[in-house]
Design goal:
The structure is a homodimer. By secondary structure, chain A is an alpha/beta fold. Chain A contains 12 helices and 13 strands.
Chain lengths: ~375, ~375
């Protein structure tokens, strides 16, 4: 089991803070945006007397609300097709346990969310990467490249859309290409759509829109980013495949139930005013525009303009991102401030890739982003391993 | 993956309720005792604005409180030795993932909590049962029987103390016997002590009290039963083994964090008045005494007097407990009432065992227990498969 690529920097960040240095955390997808008050109030104003187990698939009242939410984004579901999980993490774990035998393979475009690898290790399956490139904004690799990787052990393709860590939003054309492949080879398509609402230009194209592959498509979801409710630990495993749902339910029953309070929060969130996502999106878009402008103004830095989520992958003029990210915390400060970034090596399965790249999460306000970019600019001048 | 032995009866219970029949749920460990108000208030009166991820090991403030709690039961820990999990379920999952390779073996006295089997399936390990008998109250099987089962693949022994489903409380002598075995064969000892406070006569003998096996002992814990807080989904993985903690942390980081609200509840629970457990224990003891008296008064029923938890295993004069439990819900009622029980076959790994046994959870008040026992008495007269 590999250590989390970001978390291994945590002791250096703690040491920097102990020295009185302000650390701007662009390393983790923890939004600073307030959890909407009605969402927290649903928990705080609850009246039950016994904090009971919920249904293993989640409270029926919450699943009914989720049916409403999904109908609004043109995904038609029944409550039976939704299994509420403890974060998207558990949905991925259950999915891997149910769809794969040990030794089976899942194809994932890299760079990808590092914890997919962790859950693959936990369940004994093999991640087969297909590399996407910064030069075309981390678009889906050519479909022939994906098809080349399919073997007798391949059971699924997994995408994250909008993508973490790249911010790329898959186009409808790319989704149709994926549809062809999963249909032809009878594969599952896992689609992690936790950032669905955060698309700044293009319309989101859900895997659930794909026709005639209903039994192949698995939607992984989460309220963490959508409502700034990471600590609620509420996600969902969604599919129209009845047999698969039956298997997932066995794992869901073994762990008894998802957290009750988080479900109350999630249920209330569906009733937020219609403009909630617009307001949030405006704020994130402003931050994205700022961070992209600032990054592109730094000599030697390259980055695409990510269309969604709240991440950007940038190529820096450095020898080794792991060294650089550690150095920023251990040996650098500017006006008593520094930044914490996520080294991109942790997002690539292929060894040696991503050494010059970092992921920046624009989860801080514009003032903080400006200060952080001042630090980065200065750091790239001072870093001994600059190229 | 097997279906939960209890949950497969759920549709029959739902059908009975739809017919207007009252179903007494003695089948599941969901206490009816109210969650203490200060525990719920800690959540309801919380003031934060962003529902953030907590530390992957759990909030430090909660782990500090847990250190206090454990000191009170004579278990001396540091915050680093405690990893807060999403229920005991996740602690077991992480423990199995970290201590075993696929194909390794864990020895568990049977009957045992059915979900241990589920987590073993999920992680590809083999459960090797050693049978304990109703005739001596489900005491630890002779240590020679346990030693006979040890192979080159055995990595651990797992006990639940007080035991679910039997209610048996392991004696200090039995714990010392287990200590000898794990020391001699260098095995892990998983000790699930979720029911620690519910010992009605004997003193609880924690695995954490065992000397010179600190690196072998793993404590699995949960706030679910202790404070009637099942829906909080808060447990803990505890050990003094530093290397093992490092591995567990990698799995903990992959799933980001345990639920925040449940941690607030757990933290407040440590400050409950000292007499909290006494009051709860008096209530459960009263129920135990009643249910044992009623069971033993029914002709052909045998049961031991369980010293802890809130379960009792009873041997009934029936052909097949799965049939009987389904029949109770589908074909029987008395004064428009019936009972839901857990068939014991689901708690035995050895095929064919437990066919005449059921588990009863005394999680209902004395009036309900009396009404449920009236039903059972009547049902055992009417059941077509009686022996």
């Amino acid at each position: 089991m590999p250590q989390s690529p970001i978390r291994k920097l945590v002791p250096f960040a703690e040491a920097a803070k102990n020295k009185g240095i302000t650390v701007y955390h662009l390393n983790i997808g923890q939004p600073d945006i307030e959890t909407p008050k009605p969402v927290l109030d649903a928990v705080r104003n609850s009246h039950f007397k016994v904090l009971e187990y919920s249904h293993s698939a989640g409270n029926e009242s919450y699943r009914k609300k989720l049916v409403e939410y999904y109908a609004r984004v043109n995904i038609n579901l029944t409550t039976e097709q939704i299994i509420v999980t403890t974060g998207a993490s558990e949905a991925i774990l259950f999915g891997f346990l149910s769809c794969f035998d040990p030794g089976d393979e899942v194809i994932i475009p890299e760079p990808f969310y590092a914890n997919y690898h962790a859950f693959a290790v936990a369940t004994g399956i093999k991640v087969v990467p297909v590399t996407s490139g910064i030069e075309n904004g981390f678009a889906l690799p050519a479909i022939e490249e994906i098809e080349k990787k399919i073997t007798i052990r391949t059971k699924a393709i997994l995408i994250c859309n909008p993508n973490n860590p790249t911010g790329y939003v898959y186009t409808e054309k790319e989704m149709q290409q994926l549809r062809e492949v999963i249909l032809k080879h009878n594969l599952y398509l896992f689609s992690d759509e936790a950032y669905r609402e955060f698309c700044y230009e293009a319309k989101h194209s859900s895997a659930m829109y794909l026709k005639d592959v209903e039994n192949n498509v698995i939607l992984i979801d989460s309220i963490s980013k959508r409502y700034s409710a990471c600590g609620g630990r509420i996600g969902a495993f969604i599919t129209k495949n009845k047999t698969l749902l039956d298997t997932i339910m066995k794992f869901a029953q073994a762990r008894l139930s998802p957290p009750e309070f988080g479900q109350l929060a999630g249920e209330a969130a569906v009733d937020l005013p219609k403009d909630y996502f617009n307001i949030t999106k405006v704020e994130y878009k402003k931050r994205r525009d700022l961070i992209i402008k600032r990054l592109n103004a730094i000599p030697g830095v390259e980055c695409a303009n990510p269309g969604g989520a709240f991440y950007v992958m940038a190529k820096l003029p450095i020898d080794d991102c792991d060294n650089f990210c550690a150095w920023l915390l251990k040996d650098f400060s500017y006006k008593n401030q520094t930044i914490m970034l996520a080294p991109a090596t942790g997002f690539y399965e292929t060894k040696g890739l991503g050494k010059q790249e970092v992921r920046l999460a624009y989860v801080l306000n514009c003032d903080a982003i400006n200060a952080a970019m001042d630090c980065l600019e200065k750091a790239l001048k001072e870093y001994p391993g600059k190229i």
